[in-house]
Amino acid sequence: MEVPLIDFEKLDGEKRSETMALLHQACEKGGFFQIENHGIDKDLMDKVKQLVNRHYEENMKESFYESEIAKGLEKKSITSCADWESTFFIWHRPNSNVNEIPNLSDDLCNTMDAYINQLIKLAEKLSELMCENLGLEKDYIKEAFSGSKCPSVGTKVAKYPQCPHPELVRGLREHTDAGGIILLLQDDQVPGLQFHKDGKWVEIPPSKNNSLFVNTGDQLEVVTNGRYKSTLHRVIADKNGSRISIATFYNPAGEAIISPAPKLLYPNHFRFQDYLNLYGSTKFADKGPRFESMKKMLNGHPSLLV
Q1: Fewer beta carbons within 10 Å, N or C terminal of the chain?
Q2: For residue range 236-263, what is the model confidence (pLDDT) as tens digits?
Q3: How far apart are CA 161 and CA 157, in angstroms?
């Protein structure tokens, strides 16, 4: 299966409708896709990866291979609850924790800040496009995620080191992401990411030309009333190479109250007879407007509630 590819350049031309439909289908049917021509400075993206790789080599690699997970794998006594990864997490919004992370160079901090400033704009653009496809107000997702300040934004920086026994361990175990929209800058050489779709694991190839990989998280599934589902994924350890993953999470604020968008809810708590009365005159019409009529009827006539 090919990973859906969304070309952002086509959003401004005659192929906009086709591109929007492709985006909607990718969110609805798979929960993952790639973006090209996204507008993020590619030199900046290259520099982020270069500096992260340098930081890992200078500050993390040695300690990782001396860790309990590495020693356990060497003895082939590793437990099933271990992940073969070396990571740190940077919070960007609403507050930064960058000064609390050991040994980060000023160059890496400044470069990451510049990258994240551009990436947040892209995440907001994506949320607007999703809202358009769902028939919601342009800023609905952003406002639903904002709480009292703004959506929460953070980045998991990970290296999946070369692994001597990849058959014994996962790079990262199967999971869905807790948050909203995830934008991944990943390795352009070493594979490993897999998503689960239609009962099979789909291999996500390395990202060429700094295309970004996107997937949807649990909170977007809730806000969209299940229209855009979060999808199970994992990382496979690799014997031949070390994989970089820089995943930025555009998430709800911690105090944000999450619930399905009212426009996306089915009508509920109605008497079946009331539905049948409407059905009699609309049987051969599309069911969508019928459901909307029921919602409006219930909102205007509380006596119909059971």
Answers
A1: C
A2: 999 999 999 999 999 999 999 999 999 8
A3: 13
The whole-model pTM stands at 0.91
Q: What angle do CA 207, 211, 215 make, to 5 degrees?
A: 85
Q: CA nearest 185: which of 213, 225, 146? A: 213
**Sheet order of strands, 5-7 included:** 5-7, 32-36, 212-216, 181-186, 243-251, 152-160, 86-93
Q: Residue 64, Cα to own-chain centre: how many angstroms?
A: 27
Using CA atoms, how far apart are residues 126 and 33, in angstroms rounded to an integer? 12
**What is the CA 22 to chain-centroid distance, rounded?**
17
Residue type for position 160: Y
Give yes or no for residue 306 having a pLDDT over 50: no
Helix 287-300 vs helix 272-282: angle between axes, to the nearest 10 degrees?
130
> Which of 33, 151, 139, 46 shows the shortest CA–CA distance to 92?
151
In the chain, the amino acid numbered 190 is V
Confidence class for position 304, pLDDT limits 50, 70, 90: very low
**Rounded Cα distance, 228 and 288, in Å:** 18
Q: Are 181 and 127 in contact (CB under 8 A)?
A: yes
CB atoms within 10 A of CB 135: 10
Identify whether 94 is preceded by a cis peptide bond (ω within 30 of 0). yes
Total number of residues shown for the chain: 306
